[in-house]
Write a structure and sequence with these properties.
Layout (H helix, E strand, L loop, with lengths): L1 H10 L1 H8 L2 H38 L1 H6 L3 H53 L5 H42 L21 E8 L11 E8 L4 E6 L5 H8 L7 E6 L2 E2 L5 H5 L2 E4 L8 E2 H5 L8 H10 L3 H6 L7 E2 L8 H14 L4 E5 L7 H15 L3 E5 L11 E6 L2 E6 L1 H7 L2 H11 L1
Parallel strand pairs: 3-10, 3-11, 6-9, 9-10
Antiparallel strand pairs: 1-2, 1-4, 4-5, 7-8, 11-12
Helix pairs in contact: 1-2, 1-6, 2-5, 3-5, 3-6, 5-6, 10-12, 14-15
Bound molecules: adenosine-5'-diphosphate (ADP) and magnesium ion (MG).
The site of magnesium ion has 3 residues, from helix 7.
């Protein structure tokens, strides 16, 4: 295009000047289109994410929706989302289909000006007919690309709005990252200290804490049980220990090393966690069990599984240890998933073991089986156990009772029963049922 401009200037600068009057409106239109088009495309993309989010949620929660007969309602909501999407799409379409014809109009106007003015110049014999004809041809070469660019520009805006969202995601800083001077944790013995620890989450209202002034000490090899009502902060304590979150105040040390000065990887290599909603990956049962230590041999896996009483259950699966795991392990019952995860934790040979309501989905009989095996699993490991069935926690070396994020009682099972506080009440209720 620059070449065309130079050529046009060579022919006649007066004609060029005449054409240039159409450039300011073109620039203004393009600037406006850039400003409003970008915003419209951003809105459109945001709505697209809402729709995909709703779709994923509806598919994942299809059973709940069915069970509560919410299909109609969910459909209506989805249609509302679609409606908004439609409106936003219209905004984009209107903008673009105003801009593009405007560009066409302006270039038409430019040609008209040249025809009129150039025509009069030819009459005055200031330029020849040949020059005039050539100029008009060049003019076509000048405006042609401008129109094509209008089209391209639309694609650029749309892509830029999408790219913006991708970069936002890529630029998200992880909340917990290793300090620049972090060093790997050496193999630990498992001596854990919480020193006046306070925690609040991003969404916790200011002025309140999820955990307040938590102090605890676990000797290597000890079993620490956390007891308390739902929402009292048990899982939060464990999330701190695994450094999924960091405390706002206070320190957590492992063998005297502040967790914040260690690398997360070296910490996680030494921690095994089993929770109530365990995650299985697609692959085989065996692959899932070896997840924490890929060099474990098949014999080791079977040996661990036998000791935990999971071998029988796994052998009953269609292909035993080679049974494929469907997405999220949906082809197993919750209890079977928990058993697999127990074996996974045992095979990983962690120094620190965390069980967060890990036996909530297995039947009492299996739980008793696990119980015996767990005692072996607990040996020589520092363990943190959260369980609602108090039979699981009464052997712990220390029991911490939590209430609204504070430790309100601590001691062994016998000590706590004697003192007759919250734990004694909980236990009485537990025994009665
Ligand atoms: N990721 C989170 N973000 C915000 N608040 C949370 C988060 N996890 C837990 N909470 C809040 O912290 C409190 C304690 O939760 P939690 O430690 O999971 O309790 P428990 O395991 O004892 O049932 C609850 O009030 C809960 O709403
Ligand atoms: Mg919990």
């Amino acid at each position: 295009m620059l070449g065309v401009v130079v050529l046009m200037l060579q022919y006649d600068w007066r004609l060029c000047l005449a054409v240039s009057v159409v450039l300011p409106p073109l620039a203004v239109a393009t600037t406006l289109f850039h400003k409003y088009g970008m915003k419209a495309y951003r809105d459109l993309r945001a709505q697209t994410s809402r729709i995909t989010g709703a779709m994923a949620e509806n598919i994942a929660g299809v059973r709940v929706a069915q069970a509560f007969a919410r299909e109609e309602e969910n459909l209506v909501r989805f249609q509302q989302l679609q409606g908004v999407y439609f409106d936003r799409f219209l905004v984009v379409a209107r903008l673009f289909h105003t801009y593009l014809p405007f560009v066409g109009l302006v270039s038409g106007l430019g040609t008209a000006i040249i025809l009129g003015y150039g025509g009069s110049l030819v009459m005055q014999r200031a330029i020849t007919v040949g020059e005039f004809a050539a100029f008009i041809l060049y003019l076509g070469m000048f405006f042609g690309p401008i129109q094509t660019m209008g089209d391209l520009y639309n694609a650029v805006l749309s892509t830029a709005a999408s790219a913006e969202r991708i970069f936002q995601l890529l630029d998200t800083e992880p909340q917990i990252r290793d300090r620049p001077d972090a060093s790997a944790l050496p193999p630990v013995r498992g001596h854990i200290i919480f020193d006046h620890v306070y925690l609040r989450y991003d969404t916790t209202p200011a002025g309140t804490w999820v955990l307040r002034d938590i102090c605890l000490e676990a000797e290597p090899g000890q079993i620490v049980a956390l007891v308390g009502a739902t929402g009292s902060g048990k899982t939060s304590i464990i999330s701190l220990l695994a450094r999924f979150y960091e405390p706002q105040q206070g320190r957590i040390t492992m063998d005297g090393i502040d967790l914040q000065t260690a690398t997360s990887e070296s910490l996680h290599k030494q921690i095994g966690i089993v929770t109530q909603d365990n995650f299985l990956f697609t692959g085989t049962v065996m692959e899932n069990i070896r997840f924490g230590r890929t060099d474990a041999t098949g014999e080791e896996v079977i040996e661990a599984s036998k000791r935990l009483g999971a071998h029988q259950v796994i052998s009953r699966f269609e292909k035993g240890y080679a049974t494929p795991v469907a997405e999220r392990g949906s082809n197993f019952s919750a209890g079977e998933r928990q058993l697999i995860c127990f074996v996974r934790a045992m095979v990983a040979r962690p120094r620190i073991l965390i069980l967060d309501e890990a036996t909530s989905a297995v039947d009492p009989h299996t739980e008793t089986l696990l119980q015996g095996a767990l005692e072996k699993l607990f040996e020589r490991r520092t363990s943190f156990v959260i369980a609602h069935r108090l039979s699981t926690v009464c052997h712990a070396h220390q029991i911490l009772v939590l209430q609204h994020g504070e430790i309100v009682e601590r001691g062994t099972h016998d000590q706590l029963l004697v003192s007759g506080g919250h734990y004694a009440k909980l236990y009485a209720e537990f025994v009665r049922h």
